[in-house]
From TrEMBL:
MULE transposase domain location: 184-280
Ubl conjugation among keywords: no
Residues passing through the membrane, by range: none
Keyword Cell inner membrane: no
Record-annotated FLYWCH-type domain positions: 8-68
Organism: Trichuris suis
Alphabetical UniProt keywords: Metal-binding, Zinc, Zinc-finger
Superkingdom assignment: Eukaryota
GO molecular function: zinc ion binding
Alphabetized InterPro entries for the sequence: MULE_transposase_dom (IPR018289), Znf_FLYWCH (IPR007588)
Protein name, as recorded: MULE transposase domain-containing protein
């Protein structure tokens, strides 16, 4: 007798096959045949199934056993969540009514497995908002509704057009109040969660008490210096509306010259610090592009010599040029390409011409005043952007998917 498998929908609206109590995600399709793999593949489960679509139903053709037991409650929970989302879409009932109906109609055995009431309310809000707005695919189609332009405190978002680019800036009065008192701003962008019409989600973080919080959010359609400059100008305008003056002492960024130069242009006297992790990462990438990765991994002495380059960051900035010159004398000949690149980019600058008086150099892209952590350690500034990177990972979890709708992302702000 043919076994018909049911398709249920996850919280992210992905269809999953219920085959003998196991939930499986679609791997591929060939004609009327569907190939499925266990949703726990990341946990090394090789369970698979093949179904044939017949009269709108999935008929099980073959089944490979899993390395774990099935979960009947998991399927029931997904069905309950789908019923909740259907009510949210099709009715105007209050969230508390929908949640009450969902929890009372669910079997007693799965009640402990349901998300919390707060999580269910958030789910209802997301479902309704996503169905309320037409999702834009181009910048010209982005028109943030009035209710999404204001925070819970009534603060209005900034919308700026720069040539063919665009910035949507979001912050609050409370957050702006904290910026003038912060000794250091940490700025970084993430690309994975940026909406389809935008290039990146850019955030400005600063310490509040003993912790670092995101205080400014911006959706940016590019990463040019002009666009960053407009972002900072708009942020200054917002602060001036609240009679606040923004003049950060230190700004920490990754190795992005457009953001660095724009910050220097807008905030006179600001000191820019580059994240130590990004500096070390750039050195490693240069080692790889120079074809030295295998040698670096196999030869500990060679590896140690190259690691001395990033270790220069623990010296005072004024001592780095002389220390590098001494270090260069002892660097392996095979690493000359890496050494010369580091010298021109981070220490002495690129040689423009040579004469009897010596070599004339242009300033380095990232001078020694920018990337050492010696001063940061003594002045209590962060050495890296690790706290911001950790926030990005949590943010991706909260958002739940890459390149989501611009209006859904604004809701999360």
């Amino acid at each position: 007798m043919e076994e018909i498998c049911e398709v249920v929908f996850s919280q992210r609206n992905c269809g999953k096959l219920n085959a003998q109590g196991y939930l499986m995600v679609k791997d591929k399709r060939r004609g009327d045949e569907f190939y499925w793999r266990c949703e726990k593949k990341d946990l090394f489960c090789n369970g698979r199934a093949v179904t044939r679509l017949s009269s709108g139903h999935h008929v099980l053709v073959s089944f490979v056993e899993h390395n774990h037991s099935p979960s009947a409650s998991r399927v029931s929970v997904l069905k309950a969540m789908e019923a909740l989302k259907t009510q949210a879409r099709d009715t105007a009932n209050a969230p508390c009514q929908i949640i009450q109906a969902c929890t009372t109609s669910a079997a007693a055995e799965i009640a402990p497995c349901l998300p919390s009431a707060n999580a269910l309310r958030c789910m209802i809000r997301r479902v309704r908002k996503c169905h309320q707005y037409v999702q834009p695919r181009t910048l010209a189609e982005v028109h943030v509704p009035e209710e999404l332009q204001r925070t819970l405190d009534g603060d209005l978002a900034k919308d700026a057009v720069v040539s063919e680019d665009r910035i949507l800036l979001f912050t609050t009065r409370t957050n702006v109040d904290a910026l003038p008192h912060a000794a250091v701003w940490i700025m970084d962008g993430t690309f994975k969660t940026a909406p389809m019409a935008f290039y990146q989600t850019y955030t400005i973080h600063a310490p509040v008490g003993s912790r670092i919080f995101p205080l400014v959010y911006a959706l940016m359609s590019g990463k040019s210096q002009a666009l960053y400059k407009r972002l900072f100008e708009d942020l200054v305008d917002v602060a001036e509306e609240y009679e606040l003056r923004l003049n950060p002492q230190v700004i920490m960024t990754d190795l992005e010259l457009a953001a660095i130069n724009a910050a220097k242009s807008e905030f006179q006297g600001v000191v820019n610090k580059v994240c130590f992790f990004h500096t070390a990462q750039c050195i490693w990438r240069k080692i790889q592009s120079s074809g030295l990765a295998s040698h670096y991994s196999a030869d500990e002495r060679f590896s140690l010599k190259l690691r001395h380059l990033s270790a220069l960051a623990f010296l005072p900035a004024g001592e780095i040029p002389a220390a590098f010159d001494e270090l260069k004398l002892h660097m392996p000949e095979q690493a000359s390409e890496v050494t010369e690149w580091f010298e021109s980019t981070y220490v002495h600058g690129r040689i423009r011409r040579r004469s009897r008086a010596g070599a004339a150099r242009s300033p380095p892209l990232f001078p020694p005043s920018m990337w050492p952590v010696y001063e940061s350690m003594h002045e209590g500034y962060p050495r890296t952007q690790n706290s911001v990177e950790a926030w990005h990972r949590r943010w991706e979890t909260v958002v739940g998917k890459a390149h989501m709708s611009v209006y859904r992302l604004v809701e999360e702000f």
